[in-house]
Each structure stands twice: as C-alpha cells, then as structure tokens.
Amino acid sequence: MKLWCCSGESLPPDLARRFLAAMPRVILLNIYGSSEVAADVTWHEVTNQEEGPSVPIGRPIHNIQLYILDRHLNSVPVGVPGEICVGGECLALGYWRKPELTSERFVANPFKSGNSAPVLYKTGDLGRYLPTGSVEYLRRADDQVKIRGIRVEPGEIEAVLASHPLVRSAAVILAGAHAERQLVAYLVARSGRAPVANELRRFLRSKLPDYMVPSDYKIVDALPLLPSGKLDRKALLLDTSGRSIVDHGHVEPQTETQDKLAEIWREVLRAEQVGIEDNFFELGGDSLMVIQVIARIRKVFGVEVPAVSLFEKPTIAGLAGEIEESRAKGIKARTPILPGG
C-alpha cells in the first residue's frame, strides 16, 4: 500500500515519525471529519519533521469551507483557539427526529456570499490556525471548565504539557469543592528522569497565562480511558494512585513559626507538601489566596502582616521572618479575629 490515512484521534508527532521511518516510501495523510460532515473534510500530508503536541489536520478539501469561530460566530486570529465549523457539499441535513439538536448544531453561515455554504455545522471541536494556514485540532469544546470566574480549556494546558520533553501524555481536571477548586495535572512521564513541579510551572508560564497553570502535579503509570479510547476524566476525579511531584530542594520547616505557616499554606493551597523555600505563587497561589493566608496569620499568630509582604517574600522562610519581626516589635493584629479566620 502506498497511501495511508489516519483519522478519528489526534496523531502524535512521535508516532508519525516512527511510522514514516518504518515505511519511508508511503504517503501518510492526517485527515479530520465526523459523520455529520460525511467523514472527512480536511487533509494534511505528514512529514518526518512534525513537531508540537499533535500533527495538524491541515486544510479543507475541495467544495468544503472551514472556519474557526468564537462563541459569537466571529472569526478568531491565527493562534487563538475557537470552534471548528464546517460548510459545503458534505453536510448532513440534520439529526433524525432531533430538531432542537439540529438547530443548535446546524446554523446559518454568517459569511454567506456567492457559492459559499448557506449552513455551517458546529463540530464542538476546538482548533486554531497555525501561521502556515494549516489547522491544528486541540480538543472537544465541551470539556471547558471555569475557575475563579475564568473559562479554561484543559486541552490547551494538556497540549503544552505533552510538548515537554519529560512528559509522554497529560490530563488536566478541575478538582475540589466550590471556591477551593484547583487545576490538577496528571502526567505519564517518559522513560528516565521524572519532571519537577517547579520546572513544569516555569515551562507552562512561558506559554500560558498564570490562571491556566495547575496547582498540583501527579505522576501516574497510565491515564484512564473509556472503552472508546478517549480519556475518562471522571475516573481521574476518583484516582488515588497518583503520586504528587515533589520539587527538588524541598526543605522542611525548621522552627515553630515555619511549621505553623506551612500548615496554613497546605490548607489554603490544598497541597500535600510544601517546603520553606517553595514559592507561594508557583504552588498555585493567587491574590484571593493571599487574603486567606493573611487572615489565618492574624488568627494563628495574632500579628498584623501586610498582604504586600507575601508578594515581596513569597516563601515560608521569608514570611516567617516577617512574622517573627512583627511579634518582636509587638505589632498586633488591628482587626478583630473572626471565627473561622
């Protein structure tokens, strides 16, 4: 066989390279589509130079229009995630005896002109344009989560994590209850050295905004899958086998003040372990958590420490020194200590 096609799931670049190394004289196409659009609507000829979290799905085939749109059906710029929408000769008429779902998924084409399709199918898949004009598939849009009022696509985080040289695959979920919910990353490490949490945070912050950086990182032997082969996110919520990654240079509390402060950090950050040299914000802390820490310091130590101190000295070692200095100067809390801190 001279022509091979890959479809149905994202194609990892390393798998593509291994295939082409074993079959150097064949053509490998990465294609994308679904039943609603007659199976295949884009194509990309795979090379042994593919990089990134997945092989692109390419460009639309003949008689197909493909758009990447935001929730208001506006086009998104290059590199910005949006929903993949398809129009053209391929479209189904709708869902059998499901008019509500049909009207939700099959919408009027806001870019209708000339011979363009009158109707678009909203695939529910997220993608983005690459600088080359090709399209990269990211993930399903319905896995979106909200943390502290901001919508987050776990797939974007997973894609960046999977591009780290020490990570084979990754899954990100929102764990915890209500205001204490945090992003947790589950990782399958490549052979050799396991990644370090601080290293992963720095890597993510170089590519993503702070609110998309998980607070906790767990190593697992394998990610749980559904019979269909897709990730079972519900199973991750019940997982107890993951081992939290401990940062290099972890230093246990040395004084009573550091020990009590470490307990406060563990409560607020919902972290299993913190060291006195760990950075509060690299552990997932934010401005709302700063307020919680300051309130607990008032309750536990009975001293007033300004919130700016945690920004200036974001480690237990540094903040403990600030607390001890305040106690030595007799700077007591100026506000009433309320029940519950």
Describe it for me?
- The structure is a single chain.
- The protein has 341 residues and is of the alpha+beta class.
- The chain has three domains: 3-142, Luciferase, domain 3, CATH 2.30.38.10; 144-244, GMP Synthetase, Chain A, domain 3; 256-329, Non-ribosomal Peptide Synthetase Peptidyl Carrier Protein, Chain A, CATH 1.10.1200.
- The protein is 26% helix and 23% strand.
- Residues 335-341 have low confidence and may be disordered.
**Secondary-structure element pattern, one letter each:** EHEEEEEHEEEEEHEEHEHEHHHH
**Poorly predicted runs:** 335-341
- Structural class, from secondary structure content? alpha+beta
Q: Provide the number of structural domains.
A: 3
Helical proportion? 25-40%
- CATH topology grouping of the largest domain: Luciferase, domain 3
Count of DSSP H/I helices: 9
Summarize the topology.
Layout: E1 3-6, H1 13-22, E2 27-32, E3 42-45, E4 59-60, E5 64-69, E6 82-88, H2 99-105, E7 106-108, E8 119-129, E9 135-140, E10 145-147, E11 150-152, H3 154-162, E12 167-175, E13 182-189, H4 197-205, E14 216-219, H5 233-237, E15 243-244, H6 256-269, H7 287-301, H8 308-312, H9 316-329
Helix pairs in contact: 6-7, 6-9
What's a quick, concise take on this entry?
The chain is an alpha+beta fold. The chain has helices at residues 13-22, 99-105, 154-162, 197-205, 233-237, 256-269, 287-301, 308-312, 316-329, and strands at residues 3-6, 27-32, 42-45, 59-60, 64-69, 82-88, 106-108, 119-129, 135-140, 145-147, 150-152, 167-175, 182-189, 216-219, 243-244. It folds into 3 domains: 3-142, Luciferase, domain 3; 144-244, ANL, C-terminal domain (GMP Synthetase, Chain A, domain 3, 2-Layer Sandwich); 256-329, ACP-like (Non-ribosomal Peptide Synthetase Peptidyl Carrier Protein, Chain A).
